[in-house]
Specification:
heterodimer, A: six-stranded mixed β-sheet
């Protein structure tokens, strides 16, 4: 994968998001460069998932601008489907399609959105299933798979669209502890291949291994950002220190 | 915000377990409900045995009635099947309209449901046949199907709406995140899953519609009930004729309920 580290993949300026009267995002600005891996941490309710979900407009923002891959997605006229083709998303609850086999989970959007032929789509799908280590489950229905396997299907499904950017929304939070590793391994592999990634997670081991930058959010604001080491050794704010103590 | 997200999630999870119970068809027998299961057998085989007994012991008039009414059964099925197909099409669009964010589409769909559900089916049948008949003259059968379809379409719309809403939001989000349009995600991801939830109440509606189809006999449609009335009017055997008509309706609805429960079990087992 060829990255241009000077190119901004995501550019958020002054983003505000309300849920009713609650300010979930309070004037947030954030740039993510091509090939960069950004980890977002913060207590629950800090707005980190909302921030991530606004990047592919699963949440519509109330003020500010968001550019993704050169498109202004905060502009209602932008064809969001075109942008979403290039932005993969992985959810906490996997959200695999239970009525489709594992293989069909991976080929559906390729055929419907990318207009690939069945054989092309299946070839790409099988390569990815081999990569995430579940090729032998291709013909199974995902409900028969473990949580870790389902999440790997979900990651492969997003990758099958060959996105430029991957968003991960607490991808290991719903998993039993013994399955977290297999999902993180896939994500580490992906990071090392140069994928641009924004990851909401509390897995600081993952952050330390692959992330270029960690962002700490609290009450809808970015309170602190820096290298993973910075967060391990000497976080500046008391809130950050307190949070790091809780998750480590 | 987390509280909000949690609340959303728990609502979604709750929605998953909701069973939709609309309509007033014959109770669908399931093996878990032992009482109903036995009642079904007694009623079904009892009805058949009664008809056979009456035909053998008193062939005049019962055998003549039994020979006369089957033409009407075919018409009853014709009206029922055509009406339910029309109702399914109307119901799908109504259901989609009811969840649409477009206020105009949503308004029209909701108004349709409110108005139709507020008017008795018999009145609707008269209305479409006689009132609209002043504009376009329609033969009895199509106008009966039209009226039944429009009426049941409103109920079907509510079933589709509930079925679609029973699928967790995450499924739509996953589909849309892959770049699918709203209609693509509806067609490829949501509706195929909603189908399972929708099937039992649709089966209920089918049975209910079959019974309500007896109302079309007032529109000169020669269905089961009308054939019975014709026979009774000629032979003055009202009691005997309606006994057979009632038993035939009973056998048909019980048979259909059974068929639906078998279908449900198959789908549930998948």
């Amino acid at each position: 994968m060829q990255n241009d580290p000077r190119r901004k993949m995501v550019e958020m300026k002054g983003v505000v998001k309300f849920f009713g009267t609650l300010k979930a995002l309070d004037n947030v600005s954030l740039d993510v460069y091509d090939g960069e891996k950004v980890v977002i941490i913060g207590p629950s309710g800090s707005g980190k998932s909302t921030l991530l979900r606004s990047v592919n407009r699963l949440e519509e923002i109330n003020a500010g601008t968001i550019m993704v891959d050169g498109f202004e997605i905060s502009d209602p006229k932008t064809n969001i489907n075109k942008v979403r083709e290039e932005v993969g998303m992985v959810f906490q609850q996997f959200n695999v399609f239970p009525h489709k086999t594992v293989l069909e989970n991976l080929t559906l959007a390729q055929k419907v959105v990318r207009k690939r032929s069945k054989s092309d789509a299946e070839k790409i799908a099988k390569d990815l299933l081999a990569k995430v280590g579940i090729l032998e489950k291709a013909r199974e229905y995902p409900t028969r798979l473990s949580g870790g396997q389902q999440q790997r299907v979900a990651i492969a499904r997003a990758l099958a669209m060959q996105p430029k950017l991957m968003l991960f929304d607490e991808p290991t939070s719903a998993l039993d502890p013994e399955m977290i590793g297999e999902v993180l391994d896939v994500m580490v592999k992906l990071a090392k291949e140069g994928m641009t990634m924004i990851v909401v997670t509390h897995e600081m081991g993952f952050a330390r291994e692959v992330s270029d930058r960690v962002i700490f959010m609290d009450e809808g604001k970015i309170l602190e950002e820096g290298s993973p080491e910075h967060f391990f050794k000497n976080p500046a704010h008391d809130r950050t220190k307190q949070f790091m103590r809780q998750i480590l | 915000m987390a509280a909000l997200a949690d609340e959303k999630k728990s609502q979604q999870e709750e929605a998953r377990h909701v069973t939709i119970d609309v309509g007033d068809g014959a109770a669908i027998p399931s093996k878990k409900d032992a009482g109903l299961f036995t009642a079904w057998r007694v009623a079904f085989f009892g009805a058949i045995a009664t008809i056979v007994y009456l035909a053998v012991s008193k062939p005049d008039p019962y055998l003549d009635i039994i020979k006369f009414v089957p033409d009407g059964i075919l018409v009853t099925f014709e009206v029922t099947v055509l009406s339910i197909l029309l109702a399914l099409v109307i119901g799908l669009f109504t259901g989609l309209g009811r969840i649409s964010k477009n206020p105009l589409i949503n308004g029209i769909a909701s108004l349709y449901v409110e108005v139709i559900r507020g008017i008795p089916l018999l009145v609707q049948l008269f209305y479409i046949y006689f009132a609209l008949g002043r504009i376009v003259q329609m033969p009895p059968l199509p106008s009966a199907v039209f009226a039944m379809g429009i009426c049941y379409g409103a109920y079907m719309g509510e079933i589709f709406r509930a079925g679609i809403q029973s699928i967790p939001m995450g499924q739509t989000e996953a589909a849309r995140s892959l770049g699918m349009s709203n209609s693509q995600s509806m067609y490829h991801v949501i509706l195929p899953q909603a189908f399972k939830t929708i099937l039992p109440p649709v089966g209920n509606e089918f049975v209910a519609l079959l019974k309500d189809s007896s109302l079309v006999s007032i529109l000169a449609v020669a269905d089961l009930l009308r054939r019975g009335r014709e026979f009774a009017a000629e032979s003055f055997t009202y009691f005997e004729t309606y006994t057979i008509v009632a038993l035939v309706y009973l056998i048909i609805t019980l048979f259909l309920s059974k068929l639906i429960s078998i279908m449900e079990e198959r789908i549930g087992a998948e």
